[in-house]
Amino acid sequence: MTSVFNFSITKEGKDTLHVVRESPKRSKAVMAQFARNAAEYTKKGVLKRIPNKKEYKKYRDSLEVSKVTGMPGGAYGFAVHSAAKRGGAQALDTKRSVISIKPKRTASERTKILAKNGPWTADTVPFLPDNPSECTVVRKKSSPRDVDRIRRARKKDKRTWSKELSKAGWRPPRGKDDRSLQGSGTVSDTVLQAKRLEFGIGGEPARAAWRPTLVGLVRRDAKKCMGKKEQIAKAMTDYRFRDWVDWPTKTKTKIKMNDMRKFVGWRDLLGLKV
């Protein structure tokens, strides 16, 4: 006795099989676009919190979203970072740079005190005036020996200049200082601006941009970065929906995974536990 079974697959069934075969690629595209959206969300959130003033223009213009290349397993990653060259920022070699302040007639008392007690090194200067109408900040390349000599001198007379600054209304930041700039390496002046805003360096009130943005992303807005529910559903079930092929949305710039290590210090400085 023999039984014969004949199966025929409908067009809808064929479409379903195609979706099943493509499901790994579709899932990867959905997650990659999520990472892209999260990076864009972060950039917009940070920009929203950085004062839209002339002295912060370099900092604002330097921020960009870049695709991270060289990630393990061919994974997609996107980073929000400060590209100093893009914003026209100046580089500061912390081992070979001496900072001098040249006050103008409109300079505040704090800026005048800073100028009088200089020159400074990157890890001893209590703050850098950001208003160009107050002064000119001169960064001079010097030998490591001279930089170390000036560093020791500023630390030795710290009680004097900190007392003068305190009388002028300056208050040291709570819990954070400029020690992250000590040692070797090159940093951009946008780093100094970012720290000043994030932690209130220089006696100015803190106007954090990165921490509230990232906390909001993790605790509240991650779902928004997934995109429209209808699109996600179609990407995973509808064979005729092909928009996912172009995901993630392309970025203008790329950054290597190895270069991302430069930003580990900033991440640790933020001290986020979310």
Strand order of the largest sheet: 2-1-7
Kindly report the oligomeric state of this protein. single chain
Number of separate domains = 2
**DSSP strand tally:** 7
Provide the gyration radius in Å: 26 Å
What is the count of helical runs? 10
Instruction: Give the low-pLDDT segments.
Output: 175-187
Overall 3D shape: elongated
What is the structural class? Answer: alpha+beta
Portion of residues within helices: 40-55%
How far is it from the N-terminal to the C-terminal residue, by CA? 68 Å
Major sheet size, sense and barrel closure: 3 strands, mixed
Q: How would you spell out the order of helices and strands?
A: HHEEHEEHEHHEHHHEH
In percent terms, what proportion of residues is strand?
A: 5-15%
Mean pLDDT: 82
